[in-house]
Design a protein that fits this description.
The protein is mainly beta and 115 residues long. The protein has one domain (25-111): Jelly Rolls, CATH 2.60.120.10. 8% of the residues lie in helices and 37% in strands. The protein has 1 helix and 6 strands. The protein has one helix at residues 13-21, and strands spanning 23-28, 33-35, 45-55, 69-75, 83-85, 99-111. Strands 1, 2, 3, 4, 5 and 6 form a 6-stranded antiparallel beta sheet that branches. The longest helix is centred in the first third of the chain and has 9 residues, at 13-21. The chain is globular.
């Protein structure tokens, strides 16, 4: 799976095998929160199918709506490639910069631990 994604295409075969062992499949439903702005960035997420909206949070914990969506990461059901989400796990201060909300049933893969 990782070898199909642009960020991993130049990795050696042994590196890809190690990376692949660190991913686990997870599934979320519409309205689930994947992570919240300010959370520790502990995982790299790969969207295999579905849609994740990236949003910013309002001060004072006011309710967030779709109007706060900055971008959407969407992968069609039969699309061969996946999309990588959340690079904050690679750069200091290792915190989520946005929140992620599931837009409809979504299949993802996440790293089991920080890579």
């Amino acid at each position: 799976m990782p070898q199909q994604l642009p960020p991993f295409k130049k990795m050696a075969e042994n590196q890809l095998k190690k990376l692949q062992l660190k991913f686990e499949p997870v599934e979320f439903q519409n309205g689930d929160n994947l992570f919240t702005e300010g959370d520790d960035a502990l995982h790299l997420w790969v969207v295999r199918e579905g849609c994740v909206d990236l949003r910013f949070e309002l001060p004072d914990n006011r309710p967030v709506s779709g109007k706060m969506t900055v971008d959407s990461v969407e992968v069609e059901e039969r699309e061969p490639a996946a999309k990588v989400l959340e690079w904050s796990c690679f750069v200091p201060p290792y915190k989520m910069r946005l929140s992620a909300c599931i837009n409809f049933k979504t299949m993802l893969r996440k790293t089991l631990a920080k890579i």
